[in-house]
From TrEMBL:
GO BP terms, alphabetized: neuron projection development
The protein's name: Neuronal membrane glycoprotein M6-a
GO cellular component annotations of the record: axonal growth cone; dendritic spine; filopodium; neuronal cell body; plasma membrane
Organism of this sequence: Pundamilia nyererei
Keyword flag Transmembrane helix: yes
Main location group: other
Quaternary structure, from the entry: Interacts with OPRM1. Interacts with palmitoyltransferase ZDHHC17/HIP14; the interaction leads to palmitoylation of GPM6A.
Amino acid sequence: MEENMDESQSQKGCKECCERCVGSLPWASLIATILLYMGVALFCGCGHEALSGTVTILQNYFEVIRAPGDTLDVFTIIDILKYIIYGLAAGFFVFGVLLLVEGFFTTGAIRDLYGEFKITACGRCLTAFLMFLAYLFFLVWLGVTAFTSLPVFMYFNVWSMCQNTSSVEGTNLCLDLRQFGAVTIAEERKLCTQSEKFVKMCESNELDLTFHLFVCALAGAGAAVIAMVHFLMALAANWGYLKDASRMQKYEDIKSKEEQELHDIHSTRSKERLNAYT
């Protein structure tokens, strides 16, 4: 009988511990962090490979040559975009960790309401600063999403030309890189639908793969935007909860001081009455 009671108590204790651990997790920040990491990883990985595929297409089919020296050409711009991708991957990994840690501290402070670090003025300033950063990065990812849609639109046009030229005979459409700003106006890099290189480009896996990689990068940027919106919602809710918790803590402090003063006054009067009787 005693063994059964001990087993039931141990099971009950494990259950309460699990419920306490699960209940103390900042689920909103945790979901937003996972979504942010997935979006950033998808954007950075697919974007990097799509840029590499773009370089291969320009060199193999459009015969674009890298300019000598430090001349700013399309290949230099692609290299700069790759370094930006590296910075985004590293920076948002750290930013996601900071927001997740802030969510853990805030959740504990809201549940305990006993003068935790997050209820202090410094903690509330930290939450406000992270909220400002989240809003700023939300605008950044909106710009990244809009910028990523441009190569998707360009590659979609090229892919549509490849699909239409096989069904419509006698058409001779040309792709001019000067229209996309990839080369200078003085250079002429055209690729017409009736040329052999255009047919090879359409039949190769490089065009299709690069197009779908840019689509995945666009989806990753959109996921990052949604993650930043989740973070803004969580931070705004935490700010409101922390503000109310701070006010409640001040009220409890004032109430305890008043009760202590009343207790001191009552004890003093009791001593005076006792002295008067004696």
